[in-house]
Amino acid sequence: MTAVESSTKVVLGGTRGGPDVATLRQDRWWIQPVITVAVLTAFVIYSTWAAFQNRYYYVGADVHRDLISPFYSPCLASNCVPGAKAGFAFSGWTLSPALLILIFPLGFRLTCYYYRRSYYRAFWWSPPSCAVSDAHGSYSGETRFPLIMQNLHRYFFYAGLAFNVLLTYDAIIAFRQPGLGLGVTVGTLVLLTNAVLLWLYSISCHACRHLCGGHVKSFKAHPIRYRIWKFLTPLNAIHMNFAWASLVFVALTDVYVRLVASGALTDYKLF
Ligand code: FES
Predict the structure, then answer these.
(1) What is the residue extent of each domain of the chain?
(2) Which of 145, 156, 195, 210 has the lowest tally of Cβ within 10 angstroms?
(3) Which residues line ligand 1 (CB under 6 A)?
(4) How far is the CA of 154 from the centre of ligand 1 (A)?
């Protein structure tokens, strides 16, 4: 048999794997989309539930702590629990304060280039994996509403940076133990880890790398941008890892604060 006879015919623009089979792949390509669907669905269900709870999001001076859930920070409503309130508050807001701010972190994640690739594959099967048939007959890209909104990613990135600053402030404040002085508790480390992971997720963002050095024609003329770009490039290569780690940890941080605030768990002082 010659090399030509043993090859698989491919129709350009046609169905991958041929007209009768979705794919010729024999590995377990479906594992990745299944995990993506499971983790993202669990996160959306939990975060929606937590955002509507409107309680147990702050651990305050009554137990010598200053811990706030990232889902509720900054707490911008007049109905925030005492101690959790940010400097500015919307008066007359009667719903959960989390609903005032969640659009920003949510928009940042939803429009993220990496998550887009993941949820287009996992939920829309467009396509579910490399060399596997699309579940759709046509493709319009991100040129129409609502997907054209994905182009707002850079602006959500700016908002994300502001939130990172605020959550870092929360983590620093968590070293304060009202009535006892300064110290480190498990909660302090949880808030600190959450802030670090969110920074790593943000600075490894594709838009961040492009803003810092991607559009520069000559690095020779911009040595500082070149250094920043060189620093960010390896982080950008593992953006996926930071995307998942920060997503899972932000939910775990809310779980931790919720358990301590409800009295189900004690926030142990380490030193
Ligand atoms: S590409 Fe993922 S946060 Fe920007």
Answers:
(1) 28-261
(2) 145
(3) 112-114, 153, 157, 205-207, 239
(4) 9
